[in-house]
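Minutes, methods subgroup
Present: GH (chair), OT, SY

1. OT presented the first of two proteins processed in the latest run. Sequence and structure tokens recorded below as shown on screen.
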Amino acid sequence: MQIGIIGLGRMGMNMARRLLKGGHEVVAYNRTYEKVRDIEAEGAKGAKNLKELVEQLSPRRVIWLMLPAGHVVDEHIDKIAPLLAEGDILIDGGNSYYIDDIRRHAKLSQMNIHYMDAGVSGGIWGLKVGYCTMIGGSKEDFKYIEPILKTLAPEGGYLYCGQTGAGHFVKMVHNGIEYAIMEAYGEGFELLEKSPYGKDLNFRDVAHLWNRGSVIRSWLLELLELTFEKDPKLENIEGYVEDSGEGRWTVLESVKFGVNATAMAYALFKRFSSREKDQFSDRVCAALRKEFGGHPVKEKG
């Protein structure tokens, strides 16, 4: 299947690579053209601008935006929409707020351009293991792009979640849960670190052990094992933990719907406090974000 990809960052580049390996024809655009050259060398067609990208795609066009949430997405949509034909599909695969999806869908519908939202999880490991993908939009459009989703995801790793905004809403909640799980691991390892046994414990071995049959085993714990192997006491990074929006939106929605999301709210607020002091639990969370998503960390020194 033919697809245009706009945005070749940590996720977009590897998604393009996975689609190429799956036999799809990829036309790619990125503001920094060096990345376009990189993916061209791997078999994609490159575009120097949005007009060139659209011209290289045959109707019915499918264009996947992999951009930072917010005005950047709106800016690209405003530029590319006049270049598209009726029935073409624009997919926002970034971490956008579902409220923005509803607004964009209404605007594009007036031009008979179809809009879908895709919540994507998998980070920098997605190229190898696949991307868990949550889709919102019309069921008919979902069926049309399903060959792309099958290639991007591991087996059973994509789901039609409902009408516009549903994909990003489910991904938002997913990330709120992620915040809480990471915080629990962070607090647990801080307790171990400060205990009388902390000096003798090898945290890499503890993480490895807990992933062998225990009830708290997880992929995040596997990543902690890798993290502790490289930096046993996390001495080379600061416990400064960023948040990228979804955690805040999850807490806002929990207030709106009267849901007691205590763990997720606390995990979000703890990230705020991490920017004022350096705690071991925060270094665990910062290290995990680097491992699963390639997010930068603040190094000491």
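2. SY then presented the second protein from the same run.
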Amino acid sequence: MNRALVFPGQGAQYVGMAADLAAAFPTCRAALDEADAALGMKLSAIMAQGPEAELTRTDISQPAILVASIMALRAYAAVAGREPAFAAAAGLSLGEYTALVAAGALAFADAVVLVRLRGEAMQEAAERVKSGMVALIGADEASAGRLCAAVAQGEVLQVANLNATGQVVISGAAAACERAVAAAKEHGIKRAIPLQVAGAFHSALMAPAADRLRAALARARLADPRVPVYSNVTAMPVTRASEIPDLLVKQLTEPVRWADSVVRMQKDGIGEFLELGPGKTLCGMITRTISGATLRNLDKAADAQAFAAG
């Protein structure tokens, strides 16, 4: 059975994440040290102790989740004596960078620095315009798009995340988001839930962040991934380094097609998904999107030991 490694995105963070991995496995502790050195700050202390408000900041949570996810991958290798065999990799938004690290396309330390910059750029873009995101339950891309068109009133409001069957997130100006919440049921959408986020991620309002990220990616050292990495933008496999920068830039302003990526991976022969990193969010999304797949996750040291026990 072909396996894909999948990695969570922003929102998966929690104070104390990966602390037991660091205590149990020297290679995981080393990952924290490498990240601290790359950033010139004690990211490890914020991950372990918080405060939660600081860990939740976009510029902190993004590198923290990437580091915790790579620690989970290293924990698997520590107990199994080798990295997991896998035929593909993917990640939700920020998690796509972790997937590129796992696939050998991007060095770990370089990725930590890059996602810190990405988080800073997204936070700055968010502060330019009052904006937000709304989760739509019982929506698909078409119904979410119709809602956005109906209530935008000339402001930015667009589909941002296609997370799972029946779960879509829209993103845009704050007032437009409020109108969408009020009008959702009129458009046949069961629930509309405002999200606690810094701003309108994966929308046109992130264009300033995309410009800054483009410049950083132009300097990044990238290699061809060892296995296909499925792009959030296209839901298609990426196999060449030359394809990566443009897709990562587009990811900031275009929809994250996670559900489409999962469907495509299954069509391409993936039968097992191993979620590495904090939480089980992706396993939940995958369960709601496809059937017949084996789902496992590794977040804590006990999860790693379970793999070792077979």
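Chair's summary of item 2: The CA atoms of residues 251 and 278 lie 22 Å apart.
Next meeting: continue with the remaining queue.
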